[in-house]
């Protein structure tokens, strides 16, 4: 009976210790994993924006101004595609 009680007490202590260590180290591990995935997919990390007192970003443009950051290159030769799609006749079976 004493061995069972000792085993349960040691098991509870180990689980409590693992819980405390997980709260300390898991946020760091998750942060490293997210940064690694960001670099892997070409993000290079996260970009944080600083918000000013008006509720916008610090580099926000004046209201009413429209700017285009990227314009895709125009295709010289557009493929001639059937815009109607393919129609498949079907019958409903009950």
Q: Could you characterize what this model shows?
A:
Helix content is 41%, strand content 0%. It is an all-alpha fold and 94 residues long. The chain has one domain (1-72). The model has no long low-confidence stretch (mean pLDDT 77). InterPro entries: DUF4834 (IPR032272). This is DUF4834 family protein.
Short summary:
With 94 residues, the chain is mostly helical.
Defining traits:
DUF4834, 94 residues, mainly alpha, single chain, DUF4834 family protein, 41% helix, 1 helix
Itemize the secondary structure elements and their pairings.
Blueprint: H1 2-40
Count of discrete structural domains: 1
Radius of gyration: 30 Å
Task: Identify the overall geometry.
Answer: elongated
Beta content:
under 5%
The helix-strand sequence is H
The quaternary structure here is: single chain
- Amino- and carboxy-terminal Cα gap: 67 Å
């Amino acid at each position: 009976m004493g061995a069972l009680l000792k085993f349960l007490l040691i098991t509870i202590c180990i689980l409590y210790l693992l819980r405390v260590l997980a709260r300390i180290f898991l946020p760091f591990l998750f942060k490293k994993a997210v940064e690694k995935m960001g670099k892997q997919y070409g993000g290079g990390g996260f970009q944080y924006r600083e918000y000013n007192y008006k509720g916008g970003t610090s580099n926000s443009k004046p209201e009413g101004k429209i700017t285009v950051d990227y314009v895709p290159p125009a295709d010289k030769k557009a493929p001639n595609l059937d815009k109607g799609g393919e129609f498949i006749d079907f019958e409903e079976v009950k």
